[in-house]
Design goal:
9 helices; binds flavin mononucleotide; six-stranded parallel β-sheet; Rossmann fold; alpha/beta; Elongation Factor Tu (Ef-tu), domain 3; six-stranded antiparallel beta barrel; binds adenosine-5'-triphosphate
Length: about 325
């Protein structure tokens, strides 16, 4: 897959692009609804002998439009999104740098410059896709704005439990710790990436060494507590149990939240390595214990609960 970064004004010569069937959207998470849209663009490309494309935006429009002071967090930061879209077998990914000027394009200007001028012959978007200033362009206005230069298909609402599957809903599930329910919406368990850093080196002395995963800031972190997780190290996936929290048993002051994984059947030095944590089942809240013995006894129970969880899903 070729990744092409676009700016405003447009910085590419259309003559270098093949005729395209293009899916349009932000696609945070590349969830099951998004996958339908993207795979429809691929199918239409095959039928119409076009190349397949996806257009996404970066950063999230809310950064520019709401001028939110709070930094945005993603289900899939750009790099992760690129990987997943590549796995869906798409030829071209266009990443449009989302700025105020770009957001101010009128719907017709967006279509002229970022669809027609990119040699797009077929557009695919979901039923609620909107484009142009204030999102005034919709799937109802698209036939008019297309100037009959491209055809298009609209993907109907993909639901789960009678509700639309959306990035907003998935972010809420993550923030509520409902990680076990995510495969139905996302099509996979939620994953975060980070580098393994140094903790207080206490873990080993209490019999539970942990990999301290310094999760990249762009990811949404599930709420404080203990989880059954899988962790990817190098080529392999391992089961484990993870604590997200401030270790109140030891720390008086809340410093930075830590993500610590006790990896089962594992004894390697992985400091400095990039790992992926896959969030399965929430097990319990983080607690302040009156002593190390109580903490250790609880971690042992957590480990047994996680082992039991994995035994059940592997059946
Ligand atoms: C499965 C698991 C559950 C944990 N639960 C708690 C907890 O409830 N309260 C707490 O203060 N620390 C908890 N911890 C954190 C331990 O206190 C921590 O791993 C230990 O102090 C080692 O820290 P270090 O890696 O910074 O040396 C938990 C750790 C693991 C692996
Ligand atoms: N559940 C769904 N069913 C069908 N199409 C969808 C669904 N969710 C999103 N789409 C389509 O996928 C593209 C990307 O959508 P977008 O990035 O706005 O996702 P979203 O999940 O609706 O996000 P948000 O929660 O931020 O509204 C759009 O064309 C949109 O219409």
């Amino acid at each position: 897959m070729e990744v092409i970064k676009l700016n405003f004004p447009l910085n590419i010569d259309k003559s270098v692009l093949p005729p395209l069937s293009m899916a349009l959207g932000y696609f945070d998470g590349v969830h099951r609804g998004h996958q339908k849209v993207i795979l429809e663009a691929k199918k239409q490309a095959e039928q119409k002998r076009l190349h397949s494309g996806v257009m996404t935006f970066d950063p999230h429009p809310s950064v520019v439009l709401r001028k939110s002071e709070k930094r945005v967090q993603y289900i899939t930061p750009l790099e992760a999104k690129i990987k997943i879209i590549e796995e869906l077998g798409i030829d071209y990914l266009f990443v449009v740098h989302f700025t105020t000027d770009f957001a101010n394009l009128l719907p017709q200007e967006f279509i002229d410059q970022y669809v027609i001028d990119l040699n797009v012959k077929h557009v695919v978007a979901g039923f609620d896709f909107s484009y142009g200033r204030m999102g005034k362009g919709t799937m109802e206005t698209l036939p008019f704005h297309s100037r009959e230069i491209f055809t298009f298909s609209v993907v109907e609402k993909f639901t789960c439990g009678n509700e639309k599957v959306s990035s907003t809903r998935i972010r809420q599930y993550i923030s509520d710790g409902r990680t076990a329910e995510l495969p139905d919406l996302l099509g996979r368990f939620y994953r975060t990436e980070g580098i393994v850093g140094h903790g207080d080196k206490r873990g080993r002395t209490i019999g539970f060494p942990t990999a301290n995963v310094e999760t990249k800031d762009e990811y949404i972190l599930p709420p404080l507590g203990v989880y059954a997780v899988k962790i990817n190290v190098g080529e392999n996936w391992y089961d484990g149990v993870c604590n997200v929290g401030y270790k109140p048993t030891f720390n008086k002051e809340a410093l930075r939240v830590s993500v610590e994984v006790n990896v089962f059947n594992f004894d390697q030095d992985i400091y400095g390595e990039l790992v992926t944590v896959e969030w399965h089942q929430y097990l319990r809240k983080e607690q302040k214990f009156s002593g190390i013995d109580e903490l250790v006894a609880q971690i042992e129970r957590d480990k047994q609960n996680a082992i039991q969880y994995f035994n059940n899903i592997d059946k």
